[in-house]
Write a structure and sequence with these properties.
Elements lengths: L1 H12 L8 E5 L5 E7 L11 E6 L6 H17 L4 H9 L1 E5 L4 H10 L53 H12 L2 E7 L5 E4 L11 H11 L6 E4 H4 L7 H9 L2 E6 L11 H10 L1 H10 L1
Parallel strand pairs: 3-4, 3-5, 5-8, 6-7
Antiparallel strand pairs: 1-2, 2-4, 6-8
């Protein structure tokens, strides 16, 4: 509810720059997956490079959502004053889905109203267990060694590729646009992860992707590289779907250190978001 309120507030405060939120689909429990578009003509589909940002595939990782909304606030508040914010809104179309997993996020709120809930997956009933890892359910290189077929596992991939309504909504949305760059934001580990995740190899366009990712991580000092090389193997993930199916240069920021964890202290929310403002900006520019 708070996320939705912030989205509506942005539209109300900056109607010339933010289109009213649109539902791209619903979760397994029927909650809307809301999307905002920001641009200088948000109601018009202009011939401008497109970028996507999404967050909260994993319900216990709210700093990704916070950093995303902070970046939007920067663009909107500084439009007409800051040359870079002005350029990005004039020359880009930026689409944002701040909460891909509303059911899991709401479950954490219900169990731990003050924060700190550690539920990761969505809320699908698997019979004797609950939940599918939405970031193992994308229909590209699904079902390998970077996910689990055990419904009790934190990385349970689901019964089939794209089985979850949240991912069906995301893939339909992604396929309806032409995103040049994308960020699927997670926490934590101070990493800037690129494709591939499903295999420990560099993608064919690594020369360009390395340049963009290195520029993105230049300010925050995050380690940049393919997820399966820098972190661990993970298949059926957003990044690999973006690049493998749509040729979108896509990254997964893992925001914050182990000291920040999944629920950083309140006084760390804005500093962590600020640490990534340049990174988000350069990814939008690269589109």
């Amino acid at each position: 509810d708070q996320i939705v309120a912030v989205m509506d507030q942005m539209t109300a405060n900056y109607p010339a720059l933010v289109a009213p939120k649109v539902s791209i689909g619903t979760s397994i429990q029927g909650r809307d997956l809301w999307m905002l578009k920001v641009s200088d003509n948000p109601g018009v589909d202009e011939a401008e490079p497109e970028m996507r940002i999404d967050a909260l595939h994993h319900a216990r990782e709210p700093q990704g959502m916070q950093t995303t909304l902070y970046f939007l606030s920067y663009l909107l508040e500084e439009y007409g004053t800051d040359p870079l914010a002005t350029y990005l809104l004039n020359e880009r179309e930026i689409y944002v889905v701040p909460c891909v997993n509303p059911d899991g996020y709401e479950y954490n709120r219900s169990q731990s109203p003050g924060g700190g809930g550690l539920w990761r997956k969505n809320r699908r009933s698997n019979g004797g267990s609950v939940g599918v890892d939405l970031n193992r359910n994308y229909p590209f290189q699904w079902g390998g060694g970077g996910s689990s077929g055990d419904p009790n596992s934190e990385t349970y991939r689901g019964s089939s590729a794209g089985s979850e309504p949240e991912i069906a909504a995301m893939t339909q949305f992604i396929s309806s646009r032409e995103f040049s760059t994308a960020l699927s934001v997670h926490t934590y580990s101070d990493l800037w992860l690129s494709t591939w995740g499903y295999v420990a190899q560099y993608p064919p366009d690594w020369t360009e992707m390395q340049e963009i990712g290195d520029l993105a991580a230049a300010d925050n000092g995050y380690t940049h590289g393919p997820a399966a090389i820098v972190l661990y193997q993970a298949d059926g993930v957003t990044n690999d779907y973006d690049y493998g199916v749509h040729d979108t240069y896509s990254w997964t920021p893992e925001i914050g250190s182990s000291a920040d964890g999944f629920w950083p202290a309140q006084n760390r929310i804005v500093p962590l978001a600020e640490d990534n403002r340049t990174a988000f900006t350069r990814t939008a520019l690269a589109a």
